[in-house]
């Protein structure tokens, strides 16, 4: 197995966490603000009791978040989107590639239509 961090995996976030980093890890994993995760956990914990057991189990069993899991904020948002909805993310990536392909075709058309010699060279290559 590789030593590279897996972006779709749950990690405890000790840097942004208060106790064991579980709520901060859930917030990082889902993209939900950590304040809402903590409030939800407190409400569930005191109303049912068993969330405290799960919290401590995750605190002991989950790996600590690697220091350089994301290169920047945009990458973090991308991976949170992948974890929330992989199929939507795949559609967005395909759409982006289609847009890039369309724009490249427009650039090619612009330069080829104004330069008959270049047009002939491209046709020869096909």
Tally the helices: what do you get? 6
Bin the helical content.
55-70%
Mean pLDDT: 80
| Uncertain segments | none
Secondary-structure element sequence?
HHHHHH
Q: What's the number of extended β-strand segments?
A: 0
Shape: rod-shaped
Rg of Cα set: 24 Å
State which percent range the strand residues make up. Answer: under 5%
Structural class by sheet pairing and helices: mainly alpha
Oligomer: single chain
Concise summary:
The chain is an all-alpha fold. It has helices at 22-30, 34-48, 50-61, 73-84, 86-113, 116-125.
Structural notes for this entry:
The protein is 68% helix and 0% strand. The chain is mainly α and 126 residues long. α1 (22-30) packs across α2 (34-48) and α4 (73-84) packs across α5. The model has no long low-confidence stretch (mean pLDDT 80). It is rod-shaped and about 75 Å long. The two termini are 44 Å apart. It is built from 6 helices and no strands.
């Amino acid at each position: 197995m590789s030593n590279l961090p897996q972006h779709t995996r749950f990690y405890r976030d000790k840097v942004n966490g208060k106790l064991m980093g579980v709520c901060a890890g859930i917030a990082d994993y889902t993209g939900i603000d950590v304040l809402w995760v903590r409030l939800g956990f407190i409400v569930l914990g005191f109303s049912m009791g068993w969330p405290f057991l799960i919290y401590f189990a995750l605190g002991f069993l989950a790996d600590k978040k690697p220091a350089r899991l994301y290169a920047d904020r945009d990458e973090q948002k991308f991976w949170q989107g992948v974890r929330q909805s992989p199929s939507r993310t795949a559609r967005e990536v395909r759409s982006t590639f289609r847009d890039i392909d369309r724009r490249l075709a427009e650039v090619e058309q612009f330069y080829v239509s104004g330069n008959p010699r270049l047009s002939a060279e491209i046709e020869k290559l096909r």
